[in-house]
Amino acid sequence: MSTTTPRDLARPASAKASPAKPRRGLRGSSTFNFWLFTGPFLIGLAIFVYAPILWSLWLSFFEARFTVTPDKFIGFDNYTYMLTNDDFVGSLGTFTVFAAFIVPTTWALSLGLALLVNRMRFMRAFFRSVFFLPTAVSYVAASLIWKMSIFSGVRFGLMNTVLGWFGIDNIAWLIDPNPPWYWLVIVTARLWLQAGFFMILFIAALQNIPDELYEAAAIDGAKPGWQTFRYITLPQLRATSTAVILLLLIAAYQAFDEFYNLLSKTTWGRPPLVELYYKALGESQDYGAGSAGALILTVLICAVTLLQGKIMGFGRGDESK
Amino acid sequence: MSASSNTNWDRRTVLRAAMGLAAAGGLAACGGNTGRSSSGDTLVQMFHAYGEAGTEQAIKRYAKAYKEANVTTQWITSADFESKLFSSLLTDNAPDLFEFHPQIQMVKSGQVADLTDIIDPVKDDFNPADIKSHTVDGKIYGVRMIDDPQFFFYRKSMLEKAKVEVPTTLDELMEAAAKLTTGKVKGLYMGNDLHSVNDTLIWSAGAQHLDEKNQIAYHTDGVVEGLKKMRQLFTSGDLLLGAPTESWDPSSFNQGLCAIQFCGMWAMPAIQDALGDDWGVFPFPKVTDSGKQSVYNGGWSMFVNAKGKNVDAAKEYVKWLWIDQKEYQEDWATSYGFHIPPRASLAESATKLKSGNAAEGVRLFNEFGHFDNIGWTQAMRTAFEDVFANCVRKNMDPEKALDRCDTAVNRELKKLFG
């Protein structure tokens, strides 16, 4: 047997061009590909997120009224002003009340809708769409509908018309803070807008629960209904529930549109972003104080989010389910 | 294809060529005739949306008639015109000229240009109070376009039916509101947040916003008493609350939701159309015996963005439209809503303001009118709005609410005047 066939001779050349070796040149470079795909986003992130944050940090140490390129350094005065400002501190209280209303109600409503829609045997897609569609409505449009049509304070507002049938006088839902009916208006608007979105998340989670669990529970004597929900469904939804609550809490911190449009020119019912807008950035043009307030808020949101994730076991892995 | 041609047009060469072309194009754009207008030929003006039909078209028609520059108009329809204006003034997209109210902070921060040279030749023809309210250290920083007196409009037939006289004191106003309230009609409407009457309450209580030394002058016993009465009114059930439109819009009055409404003279044509002659006007009643009835003379003025790229061209346009073009000024003041022209010569010749309720509005303007104080800034205005929100609507002690306002206003005064 010959050991020097032409095929054998060709082998070293073939080994030279082995595909196992990285190809030279940009097209073959994984580093290049990484930067090609992530570069534009990183640039965008740097320009539109990190640069403004850094600029805001810089502004917060300056007397920056009517300018974003100030030259008068004032140290921590803006932070002191914001932290001793009753309205700003009060806005954190408003947020707390709002979160206490909106987080559990949205969680319960979206889970309830998901359970109902998931069990439906007919027109399931229709009802999913019906509940999800409000998500596509802008907060401003929804606020105007709520303010001018449903909760208008005059006799032809929908709610006042209904109350009139029972002989109840008109209620100025958004004007008079005593009693604070405005919370009803704000919470129902946001519930309508966001429950459908979280319903979809819960439906996806419900569909991931193995049927075998329910079958095994049934064999062990678990009664369908509340008992199954309490001991099977709810624990299986723990990861999704944690994520939903986290998202709801962050969304509550970012609340602006409905408060701004429903409660213009009040001193109550101002969540932090509305307060910052009114007191610092809007008509007063105090960009230094506004930046200080924004950074205080950022730190607070990070702290609360981390704390909440720790308490609820977010990201602990499968064993925590 | 030759081997050499392959070498010349590989992808690196194509890339280099493309970059070269791009660079050459960029350099070419730096000079020569690019086909664009020179920098002074295009001006941008910013207006808040007036409610009266035809106003936007009118402003654009005037701009189109100007031949020295292409003037485009930003017509801001949202309620937060101030916020949009102020934030845009920090950017390269800032308008070259804009309408607003005289505020010293804009002067101190160098946002508005000195217009003394274009106003001086006709200064004597302007309402002296308007000139004063636009003057800082002897320089005039805006041209008044219109004066807008604001007072109460009332339905004559409703007052007659309820046997109510036109109120001259705040107590009488409260009594009238109670008598005029029926099942479907509320006695009085002053806007949902009541901020329309902030200034008139101060003046009718015999106080001022700031004194001659730019110190707080609104924190008086009279104002405290007025705030308490306003709280009584707010909780009386005789006040229209939660109306679909704010008090600057006469719809609530025209549709019979209320018998008396605080509004501005601009609404007169719309009210006349809706109610015929069944209406009249009266000033904000005096709060205390030491006070006096008052009328807020609001209005709008044109300012030139001092940091803009076309300051001289913008000043030329302001001079052309708001000083030279008297025909347009009268059209703007009387053809849509009713306003009083700030030029004495125009105010005298405006025939639509010589009779009926319009003439009465002019009389109230002259007899009871108060003008903007240029030292009373937007931040101070907001602080006093918070007083109404806190003590009238939320039942805070007026003294405590005013103390909080003092803190905010003093902070502003310190920043402005040291």
From TrEMBL, chain A:
Top-level taxon: Bacteria
Positions with biased composition (Low complexity): 11-20
Family per similarity comment: Belongs to the binding-protein-dependent transport system permease family.
Renumbered residue ranges of the record's region Disordered: 1-25
Transmembrane segment boundaries: 32-58, 92-118, 125-146, 181-206, 237-256, 287-307
InterPro entries: ABC_transporter_permease, MetI-like, MetI-like_sf
Membrane association type: Multi-pass membrane protein
Record protein name field: Sugar ABC transporter permease
Coiled coil, from the record: none
GO biological process, one term: transmembrane transport
Residues of the ABC transmembrane type-1 domain: 92-308
Assigned keywords, A-Z: Cell membrane, Membrane, Transmembrane, Transmembrane helix, Transport
Source organism of this protein record: Streptomyces ferrugineus
Listed GO CC annotations: plasma membrane
Compartments reported by the entry: Cell membrane
Annotated signal peptide: none
TrEMBL record, chain B:
Coiled-coil parts of chain: none
Cross-referenced Pfam families: SBP_bac_1
InterPro entries to which the protein is assigned, alphabetical: Bact_solute-bd_prot1 (IPR050490), SBP (IPR006059), TAT_signal (IPR006311)
Protein name according to UniProt: Sugar ABC transporter substrate-binding protein
Taxonomic source organism: Streptomyces ferrugineus
